[in-house]
Design goal:
Radius of gyration: 19 Å
Number of strands: 17
Distance between the termini: 11 Å
Helix content: 25-40%
Shape: globular
CATH architecture: Alpha-Beta Complex
CATH superfamily: Nucleoside Triphosphate Pyrophosphohydrolase
Number of domains: 1
Order of helices and strands: EEEEEEHEEHEHHEEEEHHHEEEE
Length: about 270
C-alpha cells in the first residue's frame, strides 16, 4: 500500500522481488510454452494466464548463499532458486539433479519427491532447501537462461521486481497446475496465446503479453535459448498515462526490444 509523504504525494510501494520461468518445449506446430491460469481470488493478475513463478523469500536468499559459486552452474542467486522452487510448487516440474550429476532427475525420482514433499512445501511446513538436501539433490540453476526483467509501474499499490528465465522443460516431467494458486494450465504456442487473448479466450497482463510476443520470434527451444543467451536484458518499468477513453498508454525503453516504446492497453493493471 502506498504511503503519503509530508507534501501529500503518495510514495511508491516498494517492489517485491519475484521470479518466473518460461518452460519451453518443441511441439508439433513449433515452440510451446507452459502457462497457468491464476485463481480469481488472488489479488495480483487474478484470472490471468501467466508463467509459473512467485515471490523470492528469505529462505531463497539463504539457500542461494549456501550454494555459492559452482564450477558448472555459476552463481546460484536467489531469483534462480526461487524460480525453480515456485515451478516445482505450482506445476510439479523439478529443475534439479543428484548432487554432482549432469542429468536432471528422472520421472521416478520426481514422482517420489513430489509424493513425499510437495504438499508440505505448498503448505509451508517444510522448506525447499530441506527437501533437496534430504533427497541429495541440487537446484539446476544453470538450466535457466535470463530472458527479461520487469518492474511494476510506480503508481500501482502492489509492485513486483521480476526476473524472467527461459528453461527447456525436462521431457519426463509432467507439468500440471496445482489447483490452488493456479486453476488451469496449458502448453501453447506463444502466437496462439496472443491470438486467443484477442478472441476473448484468455486474459493477459501487459508484461506477459510482451514477453509472449518476443518469444514468438523463435520456432524452437534451441533457437529461443540461444537468442536469450546472446542478448543483454534491459530492465523495463512501464510509465503509464491514463487516456481520456479510460485506456492506458504505457511507455517502455526501446533498448528492451519489444517492438516499440509506446503501447495502448485496454486491460486494467494487474493489481
Amino acid at each position: 500500500m502506498n504511503q503519503e509523504t509530508t507534501s501529500g504525494e503518495a510514495t511508491p510501494a516498494t517492489p517485491r522481488p519475484a521470479a518466473t520461468i518460461l518452460l519451453l518445449r518443441d511441439g508439433p506446430g513449433g515452440l510451446e510454452v507452459f502457462m497457468v491460469v491464476r485463481h480469481h481470488a488472488i489479488d495480483f493478475a487474478s484470472g490471468a494466464l501467466v508463467f509459473p513463478g512467485g515471490r523470492v523469500d528469505d529462505a531463497d536468499h539463504d539457500f542461494a548463499s549456501r550454494l555459492g559459486t559452482h564450477a558448472r552452474t555459476g552463481h546460484a542467486d536467489a531469483f534462480r532458486v526461487a524460480a525453480i522452487r515456485e515451478t516445482f510448487e505450482e506445476c510439479g516440474v523439478l529443475l534439479a539433479r543428484p548432487a554432482g550429476a549432469l542429468s536432471l532427475v528422472g520421472a521416478d525420482t520426481l514422482r517420489n519427491v513430489s509424493a513425499r514433499h510437495r504438499s508440505a512445501l505448498n503448505a509451508g511446513t517444510t522448506g525447499f532447501e530441506a527437501i533437496l538436501r534430504q533427497e541429495k539433490l541440487e537446484p539446476a540453476t544453470d538450466t535457466l537462461v535470463h530472458f527479461a526483467h520487469w518492474i511494476t509501474p510506480a503508481n500501482q499499490p502492489k509492485r513486483y521486481d521480476t526476473q524472467f528465465f527461459l528453461a527447456a522443460a525436462p521431457p519426463e516431467h509432467l507439468a500440471v497446475h496445482d489447483g490452488s494458486e493456479a486453476v488451469d494450465s496449458v502448453w501453447i504456442n506463444p502466437a496462439r496465446a496472443l491470438a486467443d487473448t484477442l478472441a476473448g479466450r484468455f486474459k493477459l497482463v501487459f508484461a506477459t503479453a510482451k514477453n509472449l510476443e518476443k518469444l514468438s520470434r523463435w520456432n524452437s527451444v534451441a533457437d529461443a535459448l540461444a537468442a536469450a543467451r546472446a542478448t543483454a536484458v534491459v530492465t523495463v518499468q512501464p510509465h503509464p498515462t491514463k487516456l481520456e477513453d479510460g485506456r492506458r498508454l504505457l511507455r517502455i525503453p526501446a533498448e528492451a526490444d519489444y517492438g516499440g516504446t509506446e503501447f495502448i492497453v485496454d486491460l486494467p493493471p494487474a493489481s
